[in-house]
Amino acid sequence: TETEEIRKGLAGVVVDYTAVSKVNPESNSLLYRGYPVQELAAQKSFEEVALLLWNGELPTEAELQEFVTFERSNRALDENVKAAIDLLPKNCHPMDVGRTAVSVMGANHPKAEDSSPEAELEKAKHLFAKFPAVVAYDQRRRRDQDVVEPREDLDYSQNFLWMTFGEEAAPEVVDAFRVSMVLYAEHSFNASTFTARVITSTLSDLHSAVTGAIGALKGPLHGGANEAVMHTFHEIGIRKEESREEAAARAKAWMEDALAQKKKVMGFGHRVYKNGDSRVPTMKAALDKMIEYYGRSEMLGLYDGLEQAMGEAKNIKPNLDYPAGPTYHLMGFDTEMFTPIFIAARITGWTAHIREQRAANALIRPLSAYNGPEERHLS
Ligand code: CMC
């Protein structure tokens, strides 16, 4: 019958080819343009990974230098982007700020309607360079702090943290942040990337596609999970003076209770990976370094307690958002800023997919099976 062919949530449906990344749940691996993400996270800057995702190859030294020069000189926000952000209430969700900012940036861009591969790449690089300032600007305005201008002598991750906190971050912190950006950069046909491809498939522009993708990323079943993980930690209660064991015991009890109430606990489970998310070990290692750097072993207790209890009860493994949330918390970001950081990273993957969709486009327009009232008529 018609209904038997419906694949709810497009689960298991292959929609198109992509050469951007390969997710292999069997071997628990993720490749960006053929390179294992763990190797990239260990050895490459986020700037190099961005060029790899866009161009298909790692940059030469000259290509990298050219991009770094462009990126460093295009970081400042336009005045009308700042003005648009200022019009939004300070208590709106920061994802709304990110979505609005990208929309305004699109309206500003002189090549907004030019979808040639060259213009599209330039727009992607532009967004890459500017989005960190949106996150930093918004984080600071929520704290009633003055704006910190970007610094051209700092790399992407150093400058992101500089603009947000107004001080130079320690190398360990910069490195953990860089690792998170590399791991968040790309993940095949996830909901937000697919959204970007759907929008692109109508021949709409790049900024519209990214704006739509941000809307999809906001939800807690997708990017919003990194924020939701932190809400769980806060609900359990973060007690700095507590031992690792005490924290783990409380976290386990919380999880057992949550599962008894049939709650979905954010940061666990994945549509594609059923035996663990390939990105988690690398991100967990970065979190471990932050826990050591900040001397916060009780956070590890909470982390282990939840993971163990979920494993024992349901054999469901953590996803990337689980170690990423507490990492950003330790760095000093407000919880609501975690998903906007994810935007900054995923702009690379989204725009790589937008370019790929554009190059071999077919309008994405699936069918539906009607289950409403039979035909009827107005009397
Ligand atoms: N907590 C409790 N139970 C869970 C969870 C969870 N996080 N994830 C899956 N399950 C259970 C679910 O209740 C269901 O059980 P049952 O068969 O008894 O009804 C079973 O596992 C299958 O789950 P599903 O939701 O039907 O599977 P799915 O493939 O549609 O779900 C998912 C994938 C990511 C939406 C889901 O695991 C989930 O909601 N996780 C929490 C949100 C989250 O962490 N999202 C981030 C995803 S990865 C990074 C990203 O994209 O940002």
TrEMBL record:
Biological-process GO terms, alphabetical: carbohydrate metabolic process; tricarboxylic acid cycle
Family: Belongs to the citrate synthase family.
Record InterPro entries: 2-MeCitrate/Citrate_synth_II, Citrate_synth-like_lrg_a-sub, Citrate_synth-like_sm_a-sub, Citrate_synthase, Citrate_synthase_AS, Citrate_synthase_bac-typ, Citrate_synthase_sf
NCBIfam families: cit_synth_II (TIGR01800), PRK14033.1 (NF010636)
Alphabetized PROSITE patterns for the sequence: CITRATE_SYNTHASE
GO MF annotation: an example: citrate synthase activity
Keyword terms, alphabetized: Acyltransferase, Transferase, Tricarboxylic acid cycle
Domain of life: Bacteria
Active site: H270, D321
Protein name from the UniProt record: Citrate synthase
Source organism: Neomicrococcus lactis
Reaction(s) catalysed (UniProt annotation): oxaloacetate + acetyl-CoA + H2O = citrate + CoA + H(+)
